Amino acid sequence: MRNGASKPIDNNPSDDICPVCKSNRYLNPSLQFLINPECYHKMCSTCVDRIFTSGPASCPVPYCGKTLRKKGFHKAFFGDLKVEREVDIRKRVGAVFNRRQDEFETLLDYNNYLDDVECLIFDLVQGTKEEKTKAEERLKAYRESNMGDIEENRRAGLEEIEMEKRREKAEKEAARQRRMAVLREEEEEKLDVAKSKRDVLERLANTDEDANKITQQAQKIILKKSSARRTLAEGAESNGSARDPGLTLRGLKKKEAPVAEKPYDPFGGVDLTPSRYVLQGDYDNEWLSNAKSDIRHMAGGYSLQEYYARTMFEAFSGLGVFIEDEVAGRSLPAAPASVGTAAAVEASAGKMKIEHKMELDDVF
Fold first, then answer.
1. pLDDT at 15 (0 to 100)
2. Which structural domain, as residue segments, surrounds residue 211?
3. What CATH number is associated with residue 34?
4. Strands (E), 73-199
5. What's the pTM?
6. Which of 61, 76, 91 is the last residue of a domain?
7. Does residue 193 lie within any of the structural domains?
8. pLDDT 10s digits, 190-234
9. Structural contact between residues 53 and 70, judged by C-beta atoms closer than 8 angstroms
10. Is the pLDDT of residue 34 over 70?
11. Distances (CA, A) of 15 to 31, 73, 79
12. What does the DSSP 8-state code read for residue 57?
């Protein structure tokens, strides 16, 4: 086989043979294999009943010798026993290290706790014999020293699972009630339509009224009844949800309809429509006659509409701006007397220096 090519999955024939009684699944299709978390050696259910029914016994697989009990055997969920073993170890460790995030002061402390738990699981799954022994001792010591907290967290977890089951059950029941209400409404609507048709036919046969008028009146009656039933169903649903004391949660935010997302506006809502002029689609100008007929001016995505918009904006950009009124409306801040005196002294000193310099520089 070439390097990099995918290897085919080998079907090991020994996986279908019991290592104790050598029963073959090919000859007995109903053969069922069981494993025990103590050693994860699989054997058929017949051997389990025969060997472990009377009490604990040693594993019959050669070179194992671990004491097994019948209640510890179960059917493997995964095809790979290594994965099955890791899942069982994670369940066993998770039942002991069951701290919650709200028990830690910071998220960093909780993440460090989860990292320690993962390191412990890695030692139990992939570690050497010494590492597995140390991990088992650490797991046992933690269980003995934190028995109260472990039991409390276990009960809290069971309560959460129970609440989740109740919530799912209530949601399923509410969905079923809604479906039944819809079916009842459809059935009542069909009966009303059939009754209305009979009434219309009777009125058309027994009276001389206008047929269109009779039909319109019948349709109005049907619409009123359907809207009344819908309003009654919505009111009953809202009242039923408000009166259920077992599923009412306090402190929840009120549900609000999601706001429809508008298209992205790069100008942040600023209205750029000109108010002093109306931009036309085309302008007659002798300077633009050549540009309109020359294809070179259309290269690179250039548009005459952009030129029109820019030219009109520049032409009208100064209208409505009166600088004299803006300056006259401003009030200049009064400078302090000390600042004015200091400025006058500096100005006079500078003037004296300039005159003295001119006198020295003037050779005539």
1. 65
2. 173-236
3. 3.30.40.10
4. none
5. 0.42
6. 76
7. yes
8. 887 788 778 777 777 777 777 777 777 777 777 777 777 677 666
9. yes
10. yes
11. 12, 17, 10
12. E
